Amino acid sequence: MNLKLGFIGLGIMGKPMAHNLLRNGYEVTVYDVNEQTIVQLTECGATAAPSPKAVANVSDVIITMLPNQEIVKTVLLGESGVIHGARRDAIVVDMSSISPVVSKEIAELLNEQGMHMLDAPVSGGEPKAIDGTLSIMVGGNEDIFNRVESVLACMGKDITLVGGNGCGSTAKLANQIIVNVNIAAMSEALVLAAKSGIDIDKMYKAIRGGLAGSAVLDAKVPMILERNFQAGGRIDINLKDLTNVMETANAFEVPLPLTSQVLDIFQVLVGEGKQANDHCGIVQYYENLADVTVEKK
Description:
It is a single chain. The chain has 297 residues and is of the alpha/beta class. The chain folds into two domains: 4-164, Rossmann fold; 171-290, N-(1-d-carboxylethyl)-l-norvaline Dehydrogenase, domain 2, CATH 1.10.1040.10. The protein is 52% helix and 13% strand. The protein is built from 13 helices and nine strands. Strands 3-2-1-4-5-6 form a six-stranded parallel sheet, with helices on both faces. It has a three-stranded mixed sheet with strand order 7-8-9. The longest helix is centred in the middle third of the chain and has 30 residues, at 167-196. The protein is globular.
């Protein structure tokens, strides 16, 4: 079956993801509040729609990639939302990072209308969104997953059905803990090294092949050394993710002291106007404390 796709949310991540679907020959109808991004996608072969409801009217599968769960709820359930335009048996694939509790609630409401939902958040940031190699963590029914796996494969490389509805969102929360706490620990180490006066670039090359090596280290240290804080993963978006982490942790009575500290640091950086920085910009918090700058010699 040649599925007709809808894509709602054409931001840093959504725009290249939708573009990859077009490159793979899918018919894609798009919507975003930013008209300029709609124009850019239509120039690549997409069809524009005036609302989420209108996207749903012509789509077998509706993909959403949105900033937060309030917007996801509005787009899917609001007055001009997908729920009012989609046919029975349509599939919603929400690739946003939202609370698993909210994701399950939305899935239940869509199911009541004869629709299906998968929560399928991603990891890999803008570079992997561009080259179509995102890691995709999926929650939902296995049969529904099988129906759209080939679509997901146009946007991602490692695609895993984790469990039922909400499980993909839970996996993403765990991912965000690991990534952001890792960046914070890396930042502490870089600031210590910078304060001691050693060559940070040489130190990075010395440790990256050992146990301290990681995808985070390789992605973020070069950015920090170049003082490049252009966002692949914005601080305010990661602040939102860690807020969802803590809300979920509180619901399950799970203490997360390290995550709580990193959340506080993000809040400080947002207060300083750095919300649009990449999350490797967390190093600036530690630099301010130590009165040092991590940069190439």
